[in-house]
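Sequence only, no structure available. Ideas?
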Amino acid sequence: MWTRDGNDQRGHGRSRGDPRPFDLLPNLAGVTVPTLVLHGDHDFVPLSAAERVAGALPAARLVVIPDCGHCAYLEAMDTVYAEVASFLRD
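Reply:
I predicted one. Tokens follow.
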């Protein structure tokens, strides 16, 4: 939601014309719980982006799912289930 003065009220407090890049990566250092990052090897999002996210999380595990695009939970359900189950067991 935008206010009349152009401030974005969706939580990040940036104005519409703000030229600064919107980067939440520094905030991820505060996430201390174990985190599973799943990435399909045919995802349109570059693997380097998933690596940056996983690298910014102190307790992350990155799993690249073969023969999978952006919607791993739909494209590789069995693999996603196995990875989540393994992650939760560890």
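The longest strand covers residues 35-40.
Hope that gets you unstuck.
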